[in-house]
Amino acid sequence: MAFELPKLTYPQDALAPFIDERTMQIHHSLHHAAYVNNLNNALKDTAHANAALDDIVRNISKHPMPVRNNGGGHYNHSLFWEILAKNDNSEPIGELGAAVNKQFGSFTAFKEAFANAAMTRFGSGWAWLVLQEDKTLAVSSTPNQDCPLMDIADVKGFPVIGLDVWEHAYYLNYQNRRADYVNAWWSIVNWAEAEKRFKAAR
Ligand code: MN3
Predict the structure, then answer these.
(1) CB 134: neighbour CB atoms within 10 A?
(2) Domain range for residue 151?
């Protein structure tokens, strides 16, 4: 069973001006699609050809680098589209909001830690809010298309939200200004979806 590019649940211009339509179009229909195609090619005729994406990602140390890069790429981008929305909630709600306040002191302090992770990730990668196995929250970043669910991650756990800081995610609109992109991203985090993910993982 080959993996397929998931459809966006909103139009490509829905997140503008924070993420512009052209960036969304290229990011989803070209970059994400390439990860899906390359993952399918890497798994074809192997013992893992019918494996679930979650299982592949959780046991990534058993796979060769093309599966790590493209399996991570497919997993991370699928998550990324889901936790974005033009939303009415400017900060975490419900249980996640309470857990963020408990762990980081305040939403402002959490945002600072997360932005720092996003800004200090050199080159390409992701910043994460992670629910660790001990059920505490942590902020982390990963290189390339690695993610916290992978058994090789420094900070392991379930990714509640993640921010793509590859240049392909922001360069058309923000050029080298990653800080502006990170700052704008807070306006389009779907905290209702993040709350769902947090509760499901907990
Ligand atoms: Mn990307």
Answers:
(1) 7
(2) 20-202
